[in-house]
Inverse folding.
């Protein structure tokens, strides 16, 4: 991939591999002495992140997502990995009672979350609503049929999935403890060599540095929120988490939610569900019994 | 309400596990290789080793290529068809230049051959649609006195619900036998060594056509079944040029002559086989039953029972029992008397006799499941096989009555096979 | 004695037809469609008909050269002088 670069840096007792993927700063920490081995492991993780980005990005015209979104109602053959993602999206749609919907990406045509002031008018949002609805998607483990005008957007799953896949590959590839962090969503292959946990910082949405630090020995962390993506008009903050049934942001949503779970996909989806609950986010998270942090 | 929320975490956990459970599509090792060894001994008779190697690689999203090689090495001596006698016997070797002996009361065995065989095969598996698959294969087998080449094709169609699969296949092969010393004239007497042997051709051929139809079905969440019908038609030289038939005196039972065997020029075999596999808690029971009929009047029944005890990490123990029964070909005789004038077909090959056979064995292995790594798949088997024939047939004559004319044949088999990526 | 033997054979033939029909019925009796999320057991290697690598071909080759039966499970497998 053009511009795909991995930079290695030595830290205290570990190596840090930095790269850019999915429009986010990414890094892999591996606790190993040998520079060659560290580079090999970081390359495995980076390659997997780039592979998933390439395959599921909606900004490319040469991948399965492009073929699906331009299928114009016809059957598009899909492979096993895409089918698994669709199955997962379907289950999340059920679990969230329709609030999590991977067909809601078309709303970006109305909303531009760039920190600016542009709030779309009701008419443009109304026009997009018929093009949203997971129940209109026909899919099996071999093909998917998307009605004309609808789009699939794996943005809400892709990064967390990439973290878990990279973590799996690192766990298979070597015995060194490692941490994969793609833009704030991270997973570890195990505690550090001497049993110490990894330290991860939680960023303050007001961009005033690290608000707190977490000790992570196993599992994953994911953060959903509007740290960088929002619209602010008349002192009202419109977060980027939209209700697919109305086309408008969920009211009363926290600025950011961080959840710890055994894997990143699960953590990320719980964080997203919490945001979709809006004002009821804290109560929802408390009922799940997993470590979590809400920032308002 | 709390109960519903708790199940959300669990459901999401299993959903994410399902998403991540299976390893990536990008497989680093292109070849899936299986290797296997068989070592067996029939104690006083033949012992052998067979080595097999097979590898499959993905050519494209829709097709796989499989290549295989088998090497057989056999040593020892196998029965030449003559019955034991109360005196020592001397036979001419197939080449006609030498002779070998059998002691009194001993089953005559011909130890003069070395049988090594090499087989190479290849097949292409192609997927045409979600529910249609085909394979095309070719095979060549070579021994110093036998050559066989063949092609085959097999088609399989699934239904939409993927619970029934229909298959059909056909195979054609051409065999050529060029035995040491040439093809003997049927029913001619075996000549003493260093005299002109009764010969026809240097070599003869045989063509074999196979057809197979089958259906497999998912019967329940824990049961699958399969039914197969096959028909084999072969045309050409079927006899074993190294085997003879004893001619005994009609009164005393003493051996007076040996005749080279003769078999029909055609054979049609029909087989019907059914198999059911049932998943029990921690075990899989596998039962299959096959019945065959042919125009040589051979009727066989095979009952095969396996019980696989499943243990952790894909490992298993599998005891195995196989019961087999065969009726004699209509031209099979353990020996004939000199009062008979044989014509047509005649053979004393014990493989065409009436007998029962029992296999008792057990295997230990590891078969990784759908979510597990393919590394470390292997299988070890030890089996005992015995044939039980008519040791003292009712039509034994004279001195034959005191002898075991078809002694029990038994063997011990050891097999090892393993799979890996390469 | 020949008559006894052929009577025995006839009984065996009838019994074998019965068993075959029973297994046939078992093979075709099931009509329930199993939904995809309940195919866990069916995906296991022990429940496949054509898995298991080289072991079945070793068996077929051995029995082919010691018994007169042909066919049933697969075909065209071995061309050897072992009759």
């Amino acid at each position: 991939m053009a511009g795909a670069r991995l930079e290695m840096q030595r830290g205290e007792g570990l190596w840090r591999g930095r790269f850019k993927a999915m429009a986010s700063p990414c890094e892999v920490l591996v606790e190993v002495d040998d520079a060659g081995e560290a580079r090999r492991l970081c390359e495995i993780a980076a390659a997997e992140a780039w592979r998933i980005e390439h395959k599921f990005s909606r900004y490319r015209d040469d991948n399965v997502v492009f073929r699906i979104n331009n299928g114009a109602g016809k059957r598009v053959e899909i492979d096993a990995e895409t089918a698994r993602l669709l199955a997962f999206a379907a289950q999340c749609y059920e679990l969230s009672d329709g609030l999590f919907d991977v067909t809601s990406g078309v709303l970006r045509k109305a909303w531009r979350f760039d920190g600016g002031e542009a709030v779309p008018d009701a008419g443009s949002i109304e026009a997009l609503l018929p093009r949203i609805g997971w129940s209109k998607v026909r899919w099996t483990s071999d093909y998917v049929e998307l009605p004309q005008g609808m789009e699939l957007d794996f943005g809400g799953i892709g990064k967390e999935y990439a973290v878990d896949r990279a973590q799996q590959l690192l766990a298979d590839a070597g015995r060194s403890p490692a941490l994969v962090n793609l833009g704030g969503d991270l997973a570890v292959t195990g505690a550090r060599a001497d049993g110490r946990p990894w330290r991860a910082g939680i960023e303050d949405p007001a961009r005033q540095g690290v608000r707190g630090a977490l000790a992570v020995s196993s599992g994953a962390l994911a953060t959903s929120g509007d740290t960088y993506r929002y619209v602010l008009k008349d002192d009202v903050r419109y977060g980027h988490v939209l209700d697919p049934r109305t086309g408008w942001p969920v009211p009363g949503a926290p600025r950011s939610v961080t959840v710890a779970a055994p894997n990143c996909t699960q953590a990320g989806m719980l964080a997203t569900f919490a945001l979709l609950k809006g004002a009821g986010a804290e109560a929802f998270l408390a009922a799940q019994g997993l470590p979590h942090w809400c920032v308002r | 309400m709390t109960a519903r929320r708790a199940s959300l975490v669990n459901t999401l956990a299993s959903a994410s596990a399902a998403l991540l459970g299976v390893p990536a599509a990008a497989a680093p090792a292109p070849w899936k290789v299986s290797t296997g060894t068989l070592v067996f001994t029939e104690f006083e008779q033949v012992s052998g080793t067979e080595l097999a190697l097979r590898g499959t690689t993905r050519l494209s999203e829709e097709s796989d290529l499989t290549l295989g090689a088998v090497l057989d090495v056999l040593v020892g001596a196998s029965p030449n068809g003559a019955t034991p006698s109360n005196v020592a016997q001397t036979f001419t070797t197939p080449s006609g230049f030498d002779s070998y002996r059998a002691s009194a009361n001993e089953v005559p065995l011909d130890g003069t051959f070395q049988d090594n065989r090499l087989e190479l095969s290849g097949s292409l598996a192609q997927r045409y649609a979600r529910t249609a698959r085909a394979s095309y294969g070719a095979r060549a087998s070579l021994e110093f006195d036998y050559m066989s080449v063949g092609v085959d094709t097999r088609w399989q169609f699934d239904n939409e619900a993927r619970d029934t699969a229909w298959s059909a296949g056909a195979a054609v092969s051409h065999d050529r036998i060029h035995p040491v010393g040439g093809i003997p004239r049927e029913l001619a007497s075996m000549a003493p060594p260093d005299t002109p042997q009764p010969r026809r051709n240097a070599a003869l051929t045989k063509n074999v056509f196979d057809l197979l139809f089958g259906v497999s079905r998912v019967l329940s969440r824990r049961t699958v079944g399969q039914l197969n019908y096959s028909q084999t038609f072969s045309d050409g030289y079927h006899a074993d040029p190294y085997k003879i038939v004893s001619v005994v005196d009609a009164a005393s039972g003493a051996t007076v002559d040996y005749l080279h065997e003769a078999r029909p020029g055609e054979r049609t075999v029909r087989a019907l086989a059914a198999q059911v596999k049932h998943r029990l808690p921690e075990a899989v029971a596998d039962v299959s039953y096959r019945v065959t009929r042919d125009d040589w009047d051979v009727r066989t029944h095979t009952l095969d029972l396996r019980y696989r005890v499943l243990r952790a990490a894909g490992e298993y123990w599998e005891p195995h029992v196989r019961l087999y029964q065969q009726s004699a070909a209509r031209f099979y005789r353990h020996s004939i008397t000199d009062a008979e004038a044989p014509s047509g077909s005649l053979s004393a090959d014990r493989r065409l006799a009436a007998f029962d056979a029992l296999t008792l064995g057990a295997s230990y292995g590891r078969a990784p499941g759908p979510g597990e790594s393919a590394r470390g798949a292997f299988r070890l088997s030890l089996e005992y096989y015995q044939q039980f024939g008519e040791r003292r047939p009712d039509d034994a004559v004279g001195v034959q009555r005191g002898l075991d004319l078809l002694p029990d044949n038994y063997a011990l088999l050891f097999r090892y096979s393993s799979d890996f990526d390469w | 004695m020949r008559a006894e033997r052929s009577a025995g054979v006839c009984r065996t033939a009838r019994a074998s037809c019965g068993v075959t029909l029973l297994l046939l019925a078992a093979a075709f009796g099931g009509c329930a469609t199993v939904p995809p999320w309940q195919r866990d057991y069916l995906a296991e290697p022990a429940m496949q008909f054509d898995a298991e690598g080289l072991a079945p071909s070793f068996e077929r080759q051995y029995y082919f050269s010691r018994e007169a039966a042909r066919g049933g499970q697969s075909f065209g497998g071995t061309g050897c002088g072992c009759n």
Confidence is low (pLDDT under 50) at residues 1-5, 22-27 of chain B.
